[in-house]
Design goal:
With 362 residues, the protein is of the alpha/beta class. The chain contains 12 helices and 9 strands.
């Protein structure tokens, strides 16, 4: 007679087998957990990359808008100044759109834009400056004397049509011996950036802290006036691109005292740091229209020693460098644009022509 009998699962699956299955299941769960965590991490990374790309794009077009607005405001200011003196109402706008090389900051499109406008006539034209003016400008940047002599003599050799070499300079024989050889130009420079090819000039020496975003420059802990030179010796105080230009439209590169930044003023013969600061403070009140304005401040000697390279008043200052920095978050992306514009108020169709446009990320 047939009947049923109890079946013990342990008879078919020994204890060791069931333990192995449990371990296998745990490993599968662990592997899936790792995959899920990796996938989640990848998604977070992708999200951050997309956000950074979005922030970068938004900041860039915010900077583009800042360029257009700055150029329009600059044209408005120059037109108004050419017709009449500023009123109290327009002075606030003039202060906002300062053209003395200070940062002007404003909110735009949900972000922040910082603008700095510098007339090129206030800088030292590297193509026409006397050798000692070049040397003093390089010296003031904080470099040691050997490097100062190498850079100054090499700039002069680079421009000279001949192939003679100054004591600390360089010519074709030096440049042809480099790992990537080239020849000296033996002609005027087309841009300040060309100085990177000259012996002794490095990116740091040329650009200094220009790579910093505007909020770093505006939030200095020492509270110094913008453009002031630090007192530390042996440290780079500014990049040469901040004081040199090839766009000075004044005759033979004369320096307009109304726009010259502190480092340029201090490069003039016989000018002390205190006198340079007094000139900057005075021109905030009233422009220097004649050499007599210097004499009234007890600084006639500055004109006497530098009269061949100093210019006064306004009217021939029509090339401007505009730096625009834009960001939505100080911890995020800062986009920077630099443009050089030639302004001609008499041309109603093209009152401003962009001579150079540079975008870069910082």
């Amino acid at each position: 007679m047939s009947g049923y009998r109890d079946i013990n699962i342990k008879d078919h699956f020994p204890q060791s087998a069931s333990g192995f299955a449990l371990v296998l299941i745990l490993w599968v769960v662990a592997l899936l957990s790792i995959l899920v965590l990796q996938f989640a991490g990848d998604m977070r990374l992708e999200a951050r990359v997309c956000k950074n790309h979005l922030d970068d794009t938004r900041a860039y077009y915010l900077a583009r808008a800042g360029c257009e607005l700055s150029l329009a405001k600059l044209l408005s200011r120059l037109r108004f100044e050419s017709q009449q003196h500023p009123t109290e109402e327009t002075q606030a706008t003039f202060d906002m759109w300062d053209i003395q090389g200070n940062w002007n900051t404003f909110e735009l499109g949900g972000g922040t834009v910082a603008v700095k406008i510098v007339p090129e006539s206030g800088k030292i034209d590297v193509n026409y400056a006397p050798p000692e003016l070049l040397r003093q400008a390089v010296r003031n940047s904080g470099l040691d004397e050997d490097t100062v002599n190498i850079i100054t003599d090499s700039i002069l050799d680079w421009k000279d049509s001949g192939n003679l070499r100054r004591a600390s300079g360089a010519n074709d024989d030096y440049y042809l011996s480099l790992p990537q050889p080239y020849r000296a130009k033996h002609a005027l420079l087309d841009s300040v950036e060309e100085l990177i090819l000259v012996r002794g000039v490095t990116e740091e020496i040329l650009f200094g802290s220009e790579g910093n975003c505007a909020w770093n420059e505006m939030a200095g802990p020492d509270g110094k006036a913008q453009g002031a030179l630090p007192r530390e010796q042996g440290k780079l105080r500014y990049g040469l691109a901040q004081v040199f230009t090839v766009y000075n439209s004044r005759s033979r590169g004369q320096i307009n005292i109304n726009y010259a930044p502190l480092p340029v003023l201090m490069s003039l013969e016989g000018v002390t740091p205190d006198q340079a600061q007094r000139i900057v403070d005075q021109r905030k009140i009233r422009d220097f229209k004649t050499p007599g304005d210097l004499s009234s401040l007890g600084m006639q000697h500055i004109y006497d020693r530098n009269q061949r390279i100093l210019a006064f008043g306004k009217g021939a200052d029509n090339v401007f460098t505009i730096d625009v920095h834009a960001w939505y978050d100080k911890k995020g992306v800062c986009r920077k644009i630099r443009l050089v514009a030639n302004v001609n108020l008499t041309d109603k169709k093209k009152p401003a022509i962009v001579l150079k446009w540079t975008d870069f990320v910082g």
